[in-house]
Amino acid sequence: MAGIIIVGVDGSETAMKAARTAAKLAASMGAELRVVTAHESDTTEVVEIGNDKWFIHESEKAEKVARDVATELGAEGLRTSFTAVLGKPQDALVAEAERVNARLIVVGNVGMQGLGRVLGSVASSVTHKASCDVYIAKTA
Fold it and tell me: For the UspA domain, which residue ranges apply (predicted)?
């Protein structure tokens, strides 16, 4: 099964656990791993120090998170790619999976217990909206 496997990351250790699981699945299937970070705003922060001024975009911070994870997981020869997508995490993962015709989305099970299971979580929402298979990794 070649193709693309999508995994969402946000810089947390639980997301990294899901990413490691996704990397193992991608390697065993000969698939590319696409690391996705969602950002819910498109704000820009201006940082001024002395005469220097920097513009830090929310999308750039999100892309850096995805790039760092893709680089780490790709160090062993796994084909990886990355992107930052504007939107809520569950919507961003589903939209990116549809855009690249992914075969699988890997999400962690954080939020699948207790009240989170009733109110919803990223994993629950993705499983209901995705047009491809969804793998829920044990990360909690």
Answer: 2-138
